[in-house]
Specification:
alpha/beta; 7-stranded mixed beta sheet; Spore Coat Polysaccharide Biosynthesis Protein SpsA, Chain A; 8 helices; globular; 266 residues
Length: 266
């Protein structure tokens, strides 16, 4: 708890058995609850997560990274969390920054805080493939131009949100795939939430999850489409559900992905 506000870590997991223990081992004690949502893993992620004492929710099949995040946030809201940090369980981002990121939201400095791999200039030294680094920089420049923001990157998987952000954004309108991340930040800009960044070292290694070149291209095209939708909406030339205040939100959604046997949690 920070400033009297409950802190939750959410871990969107898919085949994270090899790196989960290392990730959880660095989560600060100030975190009130740790929630892992498994999206149909074929390894022992769920078994290990329960052994580590996490609150575990299991999708009945693989729905996709975006859908996994929706469940993560819904369960964090149900647990009365007021500051929610999304952390990948692949140990690519250090959990040691949780305190700093959560404090910035808990004390009302920002509504959203991102762990940026770019600010410190260590992305390539940390093993980020050159083509991913170049894609990151080009897409970020394109987005800053059309969104009117000045972020160092939009593509980090390390994010901290206030409860208000998660209840007011129409997140259920977003993609089930990786572009969910980008749509969410575009929504944050569109609805006027304050976004801050902290420098975050990153580690690329064999066990860390990473999308391949083909999926990276698909993601990039999705980013371009989201950015253009944002611009068209702002210019009054079109209207999209992901930028509508009447779009489907997590707290009003009846979506459930736990399968016919119902919710399964540790």
């Amino acid at each position: 708890m920070i400033n009297g506000k409950r802190i939750a870590i959410v871990l969107p997991a898919y085949n994270a058995e090899k790196t989960l223990a290392a990730t959880v081992g660095e989560i600060p004690d100030l975190v009130d609850t740790c929630i892992l949502v498994d999206d149909g893993s074929s390894d022992a992620t769920v078994k290990l997560a329960r052994e580590l004492g996490l609150r575990v929710f299991v999708h009945d099949r693989n729905y996709g990274y975006g859908r996994n995040q929706q469940t993560c946030y819904r369960e964090a809201l149900a647990a009365d969390a007021e500051v929610i940090i999304m952390l990948h369980p692949d140990y690519q981002y250090t959990p040691l920054l949780v305190t700093a990121m959560a404090s910035m939201v808990a004390y009302g400095v920002y509504d959203v805080v991102l762990g940026s791999r770019i600010i410190g200039g260590t992305a390539l030294r940390g093993g980020m493939p050159l083509y991913k680094y170049m894609f990151n920089r080009m897409l970020t420049a394109f987005e800053n131009l059309f969104l009117g923001a000045k972020l160092s990157e939009y593509h980090t998987g390390y994010r901290c949100f206030s409860r208000r952000v998660l209840t007011e954004l129409p997140l259920v309108e977003n993609s089930d795939d990786f572009v969910f991340d980008n749509q969410m930040l575009a929504q944050c800009v569109h609805f006027g939430f304050r976004i801050g960044e902290v420098s975050c070292p990153t580690k690329y290694f064999e066990e860390a999850s990473s999308i391949n070149f083909r999926r990276s291209v698909t993601y990039g095209l999705g980013v371009l489409a989201t950015t253009l939708q944002f611009a068209l909406q702002r210019w009054g030339l079109a209207s999209f559900a992901i930028f509508s205040p009447k779009g489907r939100k997590l707290e009003t959604s009846a979506l459930d992905y736990y399968g016919p046997v119902g919710k399964r949690s540790a």
